[in-house]
Structures are given as C-alpha cells and as structure tokens.
Amino acid sequence: xxxxxxxxxxxxxxxxxxxxxxxxxxxxxxxxxxxxxxxxxxxxxxxxxxxxxxxxxxxxxxxxxxxxxxxxxxxxxxxxxxxxxxxxxxxxxxxxxxxxxxxxxxxxxxxxxxxxxxxxxxxxxxxxxxxxxxxxxxxxxxxxxxxxxxxxxxxxxxxxxxxxxxxxxxxxxxxxxxxxxxxxxxxxxxxxxxxxxxxxxxxxxxxxxxxxxxxxxxxxxxxxxxxxxxxxxxxxxxxxxxxxxxxxxxxxxxxxxxxxxxxxxxxxxxxxxxxxxxxxxxxxxxxxxxxxxxxxxxxxxxxxxxxxxxxxxxxxxxxxxxxxxxxxxxxxxxxxxxxxxxxxxxxxxxxxxxxxxxxxxxxxxxxxxxxxxxxxxxxxxxxxxxxxxxxxxxxxxxxxxxxxxxxxxxxxxxxxxxxxxxxx
Amino acid sequence: xxxxxxxxxxxxxxxxxxxxxxxxxxxxxxxxxxxxxxxxxxxxxxxxxxxxxxxxxxxxxxxxxxxxxxxxxxxxxxxxxxxxxxxxxxxxxxxxxxxxxxxxxxxxxxxxxxxxxxxxxxxxxxxxxxxxxxxxxxxxxxxxxxxxxxxxxxxxxxxxxxxxx
Lengths: 424, 165
Fold this sequence. Notes:
- By secondary structure, chain A is α/β, with parallel strands linked by helices.
- Chain A is 31% helix and 17% strand.
- The termini of chain A are far apart.
- Chain B is globular.
- By secondary structure, chain B is α/β, with parallel strands linked by helices.
- In chain B, a hairpin with a 4-residue loop joins strand 5 (117-121) and strand 6.
- Chain B is built from eight helices and seven strands, in the order E-H-H-H-E-H-E-H-E-H-E-E-E-H-H.
- Chain B has helices spanning 16-19, 30-34, 45-48, 69-77, 89-98, 106-111, 143-150, 154-164; strands at residues 2-9, 54-57, 81-84, 102-104, 117-121, 126-129, 135-137.
- The N and C termini of chain B lie far apart (31 Å).
- At the A-B interface, helix 2, helix 3 and helix 5 of A face helix 4, helix 5 and helix 8 of B.
C-alpha cells in the first residue's frame, strides 16, 4: 500500500458506498445510503419536498428513521401538526423505524440503542448532530431537509470527499473528566470552524480509556468544530456495545498507514480538566475551576450529547444526598425511554428528586429553546447540551454555559460554575 | 444571472439560531420564518430588508443546526445573494439545494461595508461595490453544483434523473 493509494477511514467508507476503488479529498461522489434520518422539525419540510420529486415511494422503508423528538411531547398546536405530518407519512409509506412517543428518545441516543447504526454505514440525517454515529465507525453527517427528501427517494446522496484531521489521544483522563471535557477542549483549541469541511479522525492509546458513551458525545460535537464528520476506530468496546444492542457488526474499516491528514493534533488526556464553554460559542472554553463566580439560574442535564445512562449516573453521584441550591432549577432529561427506565430501576430518580431536581420525559426540549426549561431575559444556565449561541435556550439576552454532567451537577449544588472536585 | 442591492453586514459565525431562532421552528411556512429572520441580532432586519438586497458575513456563516429553514428564511426575506469569507458546510449545501445564491470571497466579505450597494454577476463570480467601484472575483462553484443550480435545485435535479430511469 503506497502513499498515493492510501485512504483515511472516512474515505474508505465513502469509496465503498460509491462503488469505487478509491476516492480522494475534493472528489464529488454519489454514495449509497444505509440510513436516512429526520425529526419533527426537519422531516415535515423533507416530506413536502419528497412529494415534489414525485417518485411516490421511498427507496427502502427499513432504511428511513423518523423521530419526533424536538418539540414532543407536542408543545403546542403547530408542533402537534408537524408531528402529525411525520406520523401520517410513516403510516402511508409503512416506515419501519418511526418511533412514536412511547418508544422514542432523542434521535442520536435512540438509533445506536436500537442497533440501527454501525461500522461502515453511510448515514445522512436532517439534523446537524447526525455526526454522532461516527463513534461506532460509521460515516455519518448532517444535511438539510431537501437532501433528506432526495435520500428518501433515491437511497443516495452526493458528497464532496472530505480531507481529514488526525487527533491522537494519549494517556487516561483524571477523575471527573469525560468525553465532553475532551471535545470542549478540542473545540476550544481549534475553533468553531477549525475542522470546517473536514473529517475529525481519532487515534491513539487514549481511546482505550474512553467509553462508547464518551465517544458518542465527542463525535456528536464534531459539527461544533465545523467538521463534516467525526470518526472513531472500531475496537473491542465498540463491538461489545454493538453486541449489546443486537447489531450484526457491520463492516469494519481501518485508516491506511500512509493516509494523508492535513493536520495532526496531539492530546494528552491526563492533562485535561473539567472544561466549560462560555457564551456565545462552543469554542469559548475555560477550565471550570477558573470560571470565577458566574451565578446560574438553571441546570439542564440531558440532550443527544449527554443524556445517556452513564451521564445520569455521574450526575446522580454528585447530587445524591445533597440539595440543589435554593432558587435554582435543575432539570434532568433521560435521552430515551430505555435510559429513563434503567435510571428509574437504578434509583437515580429518587436521588434527583430528593436533591431538588425534576426529571422529564425524553425530549430535545430546552437544548434548542423549544420547551421544558426556557430561560428568561438575563438568566444563565449550565447545560450538558451542545450549543450556546445567542438565544439558544430562550431569551436573546440569556446565557448558556456548556459543560459535562459532573460539572453541571456540581454547579446545581453551588449555584455557580463549579469543578466537581470542589464538592466531592 | 445578476443581483444588485443594499448590503446587510454581519460578523463571524452567524449561526442558524440567530438566522431563525428555534422558537419559530414549529412552522415551516416560509413567509412566517422570513418575518423573524435575524431578529435576535438585528431586530429591524425583517422590516428593513428589500427584495434584491444582499447579506455579507464573515467566517463560518450559517454554523450550527442543519435547519433548512435558515437559508429559506433568508431567501424568502428577499436576499438575492449571501457573500461570506467561508460558510458552514450544511448551510452551504442547503443554500445550493434550495437555490439561494451564495459566494465565498474572503476579500469582498472583509471589505464591503454595511449599507453598501453591491452587484454580483453569477456567471463570472465578479462582485462589485457600486459606490467605490472596487471589484472582487469569488471562488467559482464546481461544475456539479452549477449543474445542480441550473436544474433549479436538488429536487428538480433528482426528479429529472428519476424520470430518465
């Protein structure tokens, strides 16, 4: 294998899906899709465009996923109408993977849990955080509603093959440092357009100490660095996860030894500390312990970034037997029904409620300022979500500070941004 | 195809949450979306904008959510072209797919002032500040994208291809 024919993991997956021996950065290809995803905000627009294409039928009823998660349980009449559009379309086309309220969850937590995404897959989703599935060795990227419509009709999409950046992780993270801190650190280092149009590919011994949940969280936020996708090599942890959700295993691709990366960034996980992104960009990072006394009104623990069981377990460890600061609202949102049930069985809800937090049904809700925890003018929230843009969680003059579940829970206790080691 | 109009200038990292806040995403009605376009950073934009006007941004324009409602709101508000130093990739794709002309040109995006009257020639990629007379050449689209745009966006393009099959 020479340098000229070498490919990155992303390039190999795309080459296979395009039926080509090899592809190179910048090349425009048409690739076959393994899954096309949409939600209650983006799919109604896609369904309208799909009708204009006029093919009348979807390419494969098993390879489309429709998840009403953003404004559901329906927050108002308009949201109800949008969810109804999904439901009717799913019914009309007999869509296998339409998830009604009782079996739903936040899409990017739900699809891995349902065994619908895995190594070697090419996945598009009309949601920017579709890049999450790169954690499992898939090429997965966010697109708009029109791309989703074309994908549902043809089972294909056009892509410009991305160049790549290599992130080499070494060492093991200290206590209270999670995948969220790693990705916030990376975005702080390279900026919100630091990986623009490119793929972020992870390597190194440090991967051994990152759980599948850590990797899902890190791949999820690739878009916050402008990346087309984020992707992790498939290892024993990935395979064990896939087995646990009944996924057949997929096709495992490995980057060639001489694959070309435009940039290599080394990260010693042991050097990282709990990290927070200040308003109004995910790249505006500081260490939690150096955040000063930023007083907060609300804490949100949930989302496609950090609403998984391990996130709730971590938050409960910090909150158990203690009390949320008087006057502060702490909202916990398990990302899926399965996670909700497991958290309940583990007794986490008792710990949350006794600490003074509330537990919601799964929803994207407050992350995008939809419902279930909107901020008033001048209010501040520490959230385990993924964006802190102007007005993201409510009033244009409110503020969102992004952090891990451990930092969010510790901050809920003190009422200001807090490094968990201060209270534990 | 040409465009000419007054410029609304914004900074770096104009995200889709400010282009169209999520609180309005319970509708996909283009006119309603346009009536709230940019309001969190420029409350008067929906009132001030006139058909044919241009929008100029800095780096990473359109970052954030994949909501196609963002280029749709800008287009429906009357904006004839967005010029930026660089675009976030999903926004770039969405704009092409729905037929909102966008041009990547660092020098023009940096130099053009708010309120300037600017003309754009989409054939040549030449951008002209009609007041100062300065011109810039933008990055041309790859042939595939020109084909897609000539077809009127992704939907007519796919429709034609499926009909041929």
